[in-house]
Amino acid sequence: MTLDFGAARLNMVENQVRTNDVTELPIQDAMRVIPREQFCPPDKAYLAYAQAPVEYAPGWFLMEPRDISKMLQALVPVPGEKALAIAAPYGAAVLRDMGLDVTELKAGEDLMATIAGGPYQVILCEGAVAHTPQAWKDAIAVGGRLGVVERRGPVGKAQLFSRGEDGLVACREVFDSTPPVMPGFTPALSFAF
């Protein structure tokens, strides 16, 4: 039996995206046409539209459709903006389809180093981190936004960082999320009584 990826893609938008209050039509439209299965290894393509993170390289995962759509909506991407996608191959494709100029930092690259090519109006990460690196915050343009999940336990919090006109960076939690923590971004082990 062959899986109908087109139907699965439409079902994903109708049942995982729209039902979770992602109302921005450009996000829905992009997710309806981007073939998410192309970002999965061939033996895991059948998982592309499931409500689960999908491992696309050893230790690196695509964020669940619900979570990536909610993160994109929180970032309020605008066509023409300069964007950075950190270990976010599917998110980068969605942003490109929405008309943003996207630079990618791929899984396995030094994601903690100083970010070149910035500042960026939109920065998106599809994996979780224990703490958001300062280099990522420094790459946010005035008026720009950074979306990342901080996770130090079983449930993470999607964080939206933004840089104001005064140059200061503010942060707010936008939703609960549980993507796997990316390699090299795990919390430091500690002991407490």
Task: Describe this structure as you would to a colleague.
There is one protein chain. The protein has about 190 residues and is of the alpha/beta class. The protein is built from five helices and eight strands. The strands form two sheets. The protein has a six-stranded mixed β-sheet. Strand 7 (about 155-165) and strand 8 form a beta hairpin. Helix 1 packs antiparallel against helix 2 (about 25-35) and helix 1 (about 5-15) crosses helix 3 (about 65-75). The radius of gyration is 16 Å and the shape is globular. The model has no long low-confidence stretch (mean pLDDT about 90).
Descriptive keywords:
single chain; 193 residues; alpha/beta; two-stranded antiparallel sheet; 5 helices; globular
Reconstruct the topology from this structure:
Elements: H1 5-17, H2 25-33, E1 54-57, E2 60-62, H3 65-75, E3 82-86, H4 89-97, E4 101-105, E5 120-129, H5 134-138, E6 140-150, E7 156-163, E8 169-177
Parallel strand pairs: 3-4, 3-5, 5-6
Antiparallel strand pairs: 1-2, 6-7, 7-8
